[in-house]
Amino acid sequence: MHEMIGRLSGILGISEARGDVVDWEELARSTGLRVPADYRDFVAVFGGGELNEYLAVRIPPAEGRPESRLLEGLGFDPREEPQPGGGAGAVELSEEGRLLPFATTINGDVVFWICDSLDPESWDVVVFRRQVPYGTARWRRYGTGFGEFSPVLWTGRCPIPSATTPGTFPRTSTGTGGRD
Questions:
Q1: Cα 129 from Cα 127, distance rounded (Å)
Q2: What's the confidence (pLDDT) of residue 169?
Q3: What does the CA dihedral 7, 13, 18, 21 come to, rounded to 10 degrees?
Q4: Collapsed DSSP state (helix, strand, coil) of residue 167
Q5: Rg of the chain on CA atoms, in Å
Q6: Which member of 47, 48, 55, 162 has the lowest number of beta carbons within 10 Å of its beta carbon?
Q7: Where does the chain show beta strands of DSSP type E?
């Protein structure tokens, strides 16, 4: 298990995998989409759904699971090599870029991977913030992947400051996509 997913599991008090079973090889074969290993670990432990009544994580298609919306945001062919858009390895931060949404917040923010490589282990997280003060950029790129990004949401250092003040979001749910 990815180290940061293990830490997140400890923070949320989850001692065993209660997530969703996904055939990752079939997903890659049928769609061309491969996702980062830390995300696969997250899905196995927590599954899709809402964590801490704050962040809703999407998963690949799974029967009877409303969180099975990961492929809805796939607006590019993951088999094709990304084309730089204005510099070495640059990806335009807009809905037209090679962005794959994997989570949303209660504030309407959307969390994406920047799919600027065929190697999903190199994908950074980027957030589109719906509510920002005037003159503040709506897009924020984090120089980290899913595993390093996600635990800070539950340690009181929220990297998506919209309408929620860091450290003030609810801590009543333990996660697991509503399967507590």
A1: 6
A2: 36
A3: -20
A4: coil
A5: 16
A6: 162
A7: 49-51, 55-57, 99-105, 110-114, 124-128, 139-142
